[in-house]
Amino acid sequence: MHYPNLFQAFSLKGIQIKNRIVLAPMYTGWYQEDGVPSEWMVELYARRARALVGISVVECAAVNESAKGSPCMLRTDQDRFIPELARLARAIDKNGSVPILQVYHAGRYGLGERPKAPSAEPFLKSKAGYVTPEALAEKEIECIVQEFAAGAKRAIDAGFAGIEIHGATGYLIVQFLSPRMNKRLDAYGGPLENRARFYLEVVRSIRDAIGKGPVLGCRFMPTEWTDGGFGLGEAKTLAKWLEACGVDYLSCNAGTYESWARTEIKRIIAKPGYQVDVVHEVKKAVNLPVFTNGRFVVPDLAERVLDEGKADAVALARPLFADPEYAIKAFEGRGGDIVTCKGDGLCTRQVQQGKWAVCSQWKEPPWGLCSKR
Ligand SMILES: Cc1cc2nc3c(=O)[nH]c(=O)nc-3n(C[C@H](O)[C@H](O)[C@H](O)COP(=O)(O)O)c2cc1C
User: Fold this and answer.
1) How far is the CA of 317 from the centre of ligand 1 (A)?
2) Most exposed of 24, 55, 97, 197 (fewest Cβ within 10 Å)?
3) Could you tell me if the CB of 117 is within 6 A of ligand 1?
4) Ligand 1 binding pocket includes 323 (Cβ within 6 Å)
5) Tens-digit pLDDT profile for residues 59-87
6) What is the 3-state secondary structure (H, E, C) of the chain?
7) For the chain, what is the domain count?
């Protein structure tokens, strides 16, 4: 065994997880139509599960129509989407990985001219210019909390073993947490306990809806990496509150779209393992499994970080997109054969242009994918 820590089993909420490799959620745009994954998408999840990924977190699913950040996404807001979710859960489960669905609301990154957000703060959405979102009324906030809960219940009914709440990347939950984006004067703005209120309400309502059994994790932002934003100090306090609310794991991802665009942060995020130290700080604050993330392009680095006790598992997005067989190659001692993510941003650019994600490292695009799009 070349990677004893990486391939050490662990228990999550009574579920035996066969190793420490987690598929981090990654929106690919591989949809047949809104809410309907393509055959290719189902096969990609199946393929990575077959290739030994321990936990497979399926990319962000919108909790309502205005939660969508792209025209075609997974959806949890109507019963008619349950069979579509079930196709993914089954493909992962029957191939030996644990399926978890990520639920999300894009907030100000939603479609349309006036997306909803905690506050009407203008922001640079894209090269096309600034957008000023509309501030959510308290009644609307209550409604979104209920939509998260109902969506999570549908996902569990579809066969997912658990739910991951998207509390990172700059979407609605982060928009509440960040003092830069949240200027509210009511119970949802001001001190951390108010900015975290929406997040904790979502956690509690999902737990009520799905019951004690299923896994409930959070995609967790250890720092916004922006001046005047949500920082590591507040993140450590929040991590403890989430633990007290019954969250089962934290899967970290530092930064937001805005911070990643800054020159000094661009330099940081280009490095393999760039988040290990901030994630380690979060881990020290709680007694939950904490997953680290960020350009684990080779398993040797993942093994070292686990060996040093800086995280409990490693969540990989682009490395498992570049090479769906990453985990099995590491397990079989064929780490040198892994097709490594170059970090050139092609996958991201594709989805930002409304196209299917592809990888520049694919010599032969899988299943004739590129000719499809
Ligand atoms: C194209 C693309 C789509 C992504 N979609 C999601 C998503 O749906 N949910 C999420 O929490 N993170 C998403 N991420 C972030 C990844 O999960 C991950 O945190 C980030 O890419 C850094 O890890 P990596 O180096 O292993 O890719 C996405 C990243 C990329 C490149």
Assistant:
1) 5
2) 197
3) no
4) no
5) 999 999 999 999 999 999 999 999 999 99
6) CCCCCCCCCEEECCEEECCCEEECCCCCCCEEECCEECHHHHHHHHHHHHCCCCEEEEEEEECCHHHCCCCCCEECCCHHHHHHHHHHHHHHHCCCCEEEEEEECCHHHCCCCCCEECCCCCEEEECCEEECCEECCHHHHHHHHHHHHHHHHHHHHCCCCEEEEEECECCHHHHHHCCCCCCCCCCCCCCHHHHCHHHHHHHHHHHHHHCCCCEEEEEECCCCCCCCCCCHHHHHHHHHHHHHCCCCEEEECCCEHHHHCCHHHHHHHCCCCCCHHHHHHHHHHCCCCEEEECCCCCHHHHHHHHHCCCCCEEEECHHHHHCCCHHHHHHCCCHHHCCCCCCCCHHHHHHHCCCCCCCCCCCCCHHHHHHHC
7) 1
**Separation of CA 164 and ligand 1 centre (Å):** 14
Q: What is the mean pLDDT of residues 300-321?
A: 98
Domain for residue 98, yes or no? Answer: yes
Q: Is residue 128 part of a domain?
A: yes
Please check the confidence at residue 371 and state whether its pLDDT lies above 70: no
In ligand 1, which atom is closest to the CA atom of 357?
Answer: 1
Q: How does residue 161 score in pLDDT terms, banded at 50, 70 and 90?
A: very high
Domain extent at residue 302: 10-372
pLDDT surpasses 90 at 127: no
Q: Is 326 a catalytic residue?
A: no
Ligand 1 neighbourhood includes 99 CB (under 6 angstroms) = no
User: Does residue 317 lie within any of the structural domains?
Assistant: yes
Q: What is the CATH number of the domain that holds 14?
A: 3.20.20.70
Q: Which of 45, 104, 171, 188 is catalytic?
A: 171
